[in-house]
């Protein structure tokens, strides 16, 4: 729960506020950009929501905030409806789960709804309102983990849904040693006819991305930077090998996708024709920093 005593002075006057526990994960700013902005090294409310849609987006961000740093002076009467609005549809059968976890450094988690069995991509917070919604959407067959950092409450999701967790062997640690499917090798791994796991070492040694139809789930390998206004690999957060991350980025040119859905950073949508050019620009920028 956000605390009114910790309300940041940078918030505008009104009901909604951000407190000083914000970890600057950026989530509220892309979920409700008309309401939240960055002021100093943390978020703040710069406009109070007045429209119903703005209020919905602000309250969805409140629920998504990994540190419960967003609060309202008056208890929101519609919170149950907001809980029922998550996961949020992105396109077709792909959803943003919300409920980011501090254990995953606030990473974004996604849900893919499929007739053959649903997929949870990386771990959101294990929280009753979300669990209830995921049950109603058909449960979870696979819990695909892009890499070692964004695993959060994976064990609780597995225990509740009985899903098969998937993580590349090189990213297995003590906390994930029981993961049911530990893949290895340098070749892409076809999990199903519409689910291809592609190893992309760089950010971590065992990082992979998931291709589902024309959606690419990229974890911490690749994202859109709002500041730079282009696709980026995050060198500052490259824990294994920048050279290998560049090499892994080149591999993506072998695949067709028009959505990039990252763990950190912003999502990006372009045409199938435009995407390779954006990836090539990203590679060129990365190569310039070797
Ligand atoms: S979602 Fe929460 S932690 Fe993340 S930037 Fe917003 S207020 Fe800060």
Automatic annotation (TrEMBL):
Domain Metallo-beta-lactamase: 106-264
SUPFAM superfamilies for this protein: 4Fe-4S ferredoxins, Metallo-hydrolase/oxidoreductase
Pfam families: Fer4_13
TM segment ranges: none
Leader sequence segment: none
PANTHER family attached to this UniProt entry: METALLO-BETA-LACTAMASE FAMILY PROTEIN (PTHR42773:SF1), METALLO-BETA-LACTAMASE-RELATED (PTHR42773)
Protein name as it appears in the record: Metallo-beta-lactamase superfamily protein
Organism: Acaryochloris marina (strain MBIC 11017)
